[in-house]
Amino acid sequence: MKSASCIALLMAFVALPVLAKISPEEAEKLKSGLTPVGAERAGNKDGTIPAWDGGLSTAPACFKGEGSRYCDPFPDDKPEFTITAQNMAQYKAKLSEGQLAMLEKFPGTYKMNVYPTRRTAAYPQFYYDATYKNALEAELGGNGEALINAIVGVPFPVPKSGVEPVWNHKVRYRGQGTRRWNNQAAVTASGNYNLVKIREDVTFTYSKQGATPASLDNVIIYFLQLVTAPPRLAGTITLVHETMDQVKEPRRAWQYNPGQRRLRRAPNVGYDNPGTGADGLRTNDQTDTFNGATDRYTWKIVGKKEMYIPYNAYVIHSDKYKYSDIIQKGHIDQNLARYELHRVWIVEGEVKPTTTHIYAKRRFYFDEDSWQIALVDIYDRRGQLWRWQEAHVAQAYDKPYLAPVIETIYDMQNNRYLVQAMNNEDEESAERVFEPSYFDPSNVQKQATK
Known about the structure:
With 450 residues, this protein is an alpha+beta fold. It has a single domain (81-448), classed as Lipoprotein localisation LolA/LolB/LppX (outer membrane lipoprotein receptor (LolB), chain A, Clam). Helices cover 14% and strands 30% of the residues. It has eight helices and 20 strands. The chain has helices spanning 2-15, 24-28, 88-91, 97-105, 125-137, 163-170, 323-326, 441-448; strands at residues 17-19, 81-83, 112-114, 139-141, 146-148, 177-181, 183-187, 193-203, 219-229, 237-243, 252-257, 262-265, 297-310, 339-351, 361-367, 373-379, 385-396, 401-411, 416-422, 430-431. The strands form three sheets. The protein has a 15-stranded antiparallel β-sheet that branches. Strands 1-4-5 form a three-stranded antiparallel β-sheet, with no helix packed on it. Strands 2-3 form a two-stranded antiparallel sheet. A hairpin with a 5-residue loop joins β15 (361-367) and β16 (373-379). The longest helix is centred in the N-terminal third of the chain and has 14 residues, at 2-15. The model is unreliable at 1-17 (pLDDT under 50).
């Protein structure tokens, strides 16, 4: 009886909020010294990072409207300098370990063209209003796995613990729903690859204007992924209902295999299980740079610093380029990539001794203006750099929100890499809101077997 009482007491403690909301005085900074999402409004002392002026929320003249390709609003911008293996020591303090490793590994081809910094991240006013409210009310429970009293906006614009920026990334605003092509290629050391074409339908219930925590039914994201090519994978479906309180209920996931013609529960869709069609080059929790439960890691904020990160990636997103133009031996075509100097939050996650994950340590670099994870250094159990990933982002200025248009994961130990989230040869991502019933397993089963 004594043992049962102790367990009950422990469970009651775990369910309580464990991280405090900020004070009204701190929240007021979101209206003055900080941007509405928690970034520093001011530029840096050198003038190489400008002040945030509201971001880019008006479409340029080159944009043809909803559904058309996002054109480059800065066509006259030129690189201010280029970082190479020969001069990288000069910029070392502003580069991640993964970036330094790539410069050393490919001294003849890998480079980083650095452009003027443009702080384009901008969001709707209702998102800013919700963020201010969250700052005063949002908490975490269940050892960081339950989001409490947060809705629509950034939960923790002034983070106090390492897991808070991770939640900010997971629920960041990307519209209220979308259909997109998330095409990916696992590239061999010789530069060969097979393209996997993936269509994804997503509803971000957490982000719906007017939503309340009670209205979510504990689901923050509905996600439906359909593989359309190659033939050996075509028809494979992954369905996910991402939960807000993962202590109350873990992620709900199902998979459909055309050979079996049944939609089955799939508890393995998460953590370090291999991602679909990635040839072992990414884990499930590397989709969207990071997603899912955080409970296998102990998280800590390392600090903030200025870093060169991919940004305003309109050129590499252009439909002028085919996938074969982007995918090169060793790495993507760095002539098409744009890097800028931005301030980032650095957060490290180390695997807890009581659990396992193939990645023993991850170091995340969060763009302060969007909470998008821009870079990740990934380490094995020996403490050696194993993989590193980056997200090339662009502002969807007609929405507005910031989102990845191409993501890469480089394996430093086997000389391979994965490139994903491309749609250069397919339709542009379009905002589209699907009703929750669209993601009901019975409906997905019917659609799959038609």
